[in-house]
Write a structure and sequence with these properties.
This protein is an all-alpha fold. Helices cover 58% and strands 0% of the residues. Helix 1 (21-32) crosses helix 2 (38-52) and helix 2 (38-52) packs across helix 3 (58-65).
Length: 119
């Protein structure tokens, strides 16, 4: 018959790279600024939690920062290690921008109205 398939996960411990005093100051500033997008503030919270407690794993830091699962903490710690504070910003998404989609929808509506008038 064979053995049942057992999933095993290798736990990868993400270590935060050394943070400069300037980066730490900027992260605290981002975390405290309630005018910024919540997502950016949560990402900064992951890094700050790991910087303040080196024993804290990235997944737990993500939960403490307000994410619902551990995965985002790991993603953001990796991106911060690779790209610094700029890595915490949103990247451009593929496909047309929202402005382009909205303009396309507006033109469609105008054509519908014009077709109804002409009919």
């Amino acid at each position: 018959m064979g053995e049942p398939h057992v999933r095993t996960y290798e736990r990868e411990r993400i270590r935060l790279r050394a943070i400069t005093n300037e980066e730490h100051r900027l992260l605290r500033q981002i975390w405290a600024d309630t005018g910024l997008r919540l997502r950016l503030r949560m990402r900064a919270g992951v890094i700050l939690a790991m910087a303040d407690n080196p024993q804290l794993c990235a997944g737990r830091a993500g939960l403490e920062a307000g994410f619902n699962t551990r995965v985002p903490g790991i993603w953001w710690a990796k991106r911060f290690n690779a790209e610094g504070i700029r890595g915490l910003e949103d990247r451009p998404r593929p496909g047309p921008s929202m402005a382009f989609r909205e303009e396309r929808m507006r033109r469609r509506e105008e054509r519908k109205v014009a077709n109804k008038k002409g009919a």
